[in-house]
Amino acid sequence: MKYEIQIDRTGCIACANCYIMDQEHFEGDDEGYSMVIGGETNPSISKGSFDDEDFEYVQEVADMCPVDVISVKKV
Ligand code: SF4
After folding, report:
1. Pairing mode of beta strands 2-8, 70-74
2. Ligand 1 centroid vs 71 CA: distance in angstroms?
3. Domain that includes residue 17, residue range
4. Domain CATH code at residue 31
5. Burial class (CB in 10 A: 0-12, 13-18, 19+), 37
6. Cα-based torsion angle of the residue sequence 38, 4, 35, 33 in order, rounded to the nearest 10 degrees
7. What is the pLDDT of residues 30-72, one digit of tens each?
8. Could you tell me the distance, in angstroms and rounded to a whole number, from the CA of residue 18 to the centre of ligand 1?
9. Judging by beta carbons within 10 Å of its beta carbon (0-12, 13-18, 19+), is residue 69 exposed, middle or buried?
């Protein structure tokens, strides 16, 4: 399934939840703020597309973000 992950990095608090739970799609930058692996990242936004079977799990990871800055949508 194809889907896109987007992180509003302006709200990320660098808690590390997402990239501890899912090391296939998320990683932290040098200061711990989240980025989408292989995506396009600037100080405000990180986004990237995937085509794999992990859509539902990635949604769970997004739901665990304490500040709700991760969105996942099918494309
Ligand atoms: S779970 Fe949310 S607040 Fe925590 S690092 Fe990931 S995007 Fe940032």
Report:
1. antiparallel
2. 11
3. 2-74
4. 3.30.70.20
5. middle
6. 180
7. 999 999 999 999 999 999 999 999 999 999 999 999 999 999 9
8. 6
9. middle
Task: Supply the pLDDT for residue 30.
Answer: 97
Ligand 1: centre distance to CA 1 (Å): 24
Q: What is the pLDDT of residue 46?
A: 98
Average pLDDT score over residue span 16-42: 98
Q: Which two tokens stand for residue 30?
A: 């040098």
pTM of the model: 0.97
Which two tokens mark 19? 């990239």
For 3, half-sphere exposure in the C-beta direction (CA atoms, 13 angstrom radius) is: 18
The residue contributing the CA closest to ligand 1 atom 6 is 18
Report the number of distinct structural domains present in the chain: 1
Residues 19-30 have a mean pLDDT of 98
